[in-house]
Amino acid sequence: MTQKILITGTAGFIGFHLAKKLLERGDEVIGLDVINDYYDIRVKHGRLAETGIAHEKVQYGQLLQSTTYDHYRFIQLGLEDAEGLNQLFAQEKFDKVIHLAAQAGVRYSLENPQAYVDSNIVGFVNILEACRHHHIKHLAYASSSSVYGLNETMPFSIHHNVDHPISLYAASKKSNELMAHTYSHLFGIPTTGLRFFTVYGPWGRPDMALFLFTKAILEGEPIKVFNNGEMSRDFTYVGDIVEGVMRVNDNPPQGNPEWSGKNPDPGTAKAPYMVYNIGNNSPVKLMDFIKVIEQQLGREAQKDFMPMQPGDVSATYADVQDLMDNLGYKPETSLEYGVGEFVKWYRGFYGV
Fold it and tell me: Are the C-beta atoms of residues 280 and 197 closer than 8 Å to each other?
């Protein structure tokens, strides 16, 4: 059965790829994005164009028909615009919502905290309220591996406590999980939080390491290697993320009948609430990651070794057992393939 799905953040990295996949399988999709200039707006416009949305025709609050997919429309709308969101939900009568729009970035949250409150907290409440009043069958939403904060037990499990975030970005994502549980408990809305682990791939964000390193190496500039290279990340290919999100979307949580308030499990609930890690389950040392980029570019990087940045963690590592047990899925795209795909896209997009 086809579904009518609202995806927020479709000018963004993951939302763009997800919209394409759902459209290709035949779902009806409405894409939503505010299209801010947090990073190179040309990348956002390029993603929109790939799905048949000409950015010069976009008008705030007006649905625009795709010229590529007859079952895709796009609307420019801010998450803080509660009235606009409510009108859209009332008009379109969505089956499900996949909420990926957010103010991203750990380091930027130290510079502009208000942007995170407006988008990730106020905006998320507006999404929850719209889902509540318009009888949405499932809300899946982007959380982040950053919620694990000061946790040092590896791999990170959804059943671990996550009460010690170290950036406002991470705290805003943790707050999303708490608010989602409240709405699942009070109003019976099935909600699933998606803790993404260092997503990379074609059309990736210009503020992420792969993009920054590739750009610098090709321009003969030094790359900044934080924590003197003593870091590891569970790099996860965007195609694997999208597959995980689609499986989650198709399988709303039912609630955990074994859940007990005497020994509360952070990752599940009696209510129809669930959290999943979506990660590669295979952390890579930062210096090894750089080597793969160098191999794919055929050039060696000049490296400036720097101390750890505020808000950063030294390692991420996803336990995806629940994803495997419940949805039969485990990300497994190799780093060499994923970085190679990004490099091909980057060279093509920027003509270098």
Answer: yes
Among 85, 15, 25, 76, residue whose Cα is nearest residue 51? 15
SS3 state of residue 7: strand
Task: Give Cα separations from 277 to 157, 197, 257 (angstroms).
Answer: 7, 8, 21
Are 280 and 330 a contacting pair, CB within 8 Å?
no
The CA-atom distances, in angstroms, between 293 and each of 181, 242, 286, 337 are 40, 23, 11, 11
Chain centroid to CA 341:
19
Q: What is the 3-state secondary structure (H, E, C) of 24-54?
A: HCCCEEEEEECCCCCCCHHHHHHHHHHCCCC
Which of 108, 116, 141, 169 is labelled catalytic? 169
Residue 72 has which token pair? 């895709």
Give the model confidence (pLDDT) of 40-97 as tens digits: 999 999 999 999 999 999 999 999 999 999 999 999 999 999 999 999 999 999 999 9
The whole-angstrom separation of Cα 107 and Cα 315 is 16
Query: Is residue 155 reached through a cis peptide bond, with omega within 30 degrees of 0 on the bond before it?
Result: yes
Distance, CA of 252 to CA of 255 (rounded, Å): 9
Sort strands 273-278 and 64-65 into parallel, antiparallel or unpaired: unpaired
Is 337 annotated in the active site? no
Write out pLDDT tens, residues 180-225: 999 999 999 999 999 999 999 999 999 999 999 999 999 999 999 9
State in Å, rounded, how far the first CA of the chain is from the last one. 43
SS3 200: strand
Q: What stretch of H or E contains 237?
A: strand 236-237
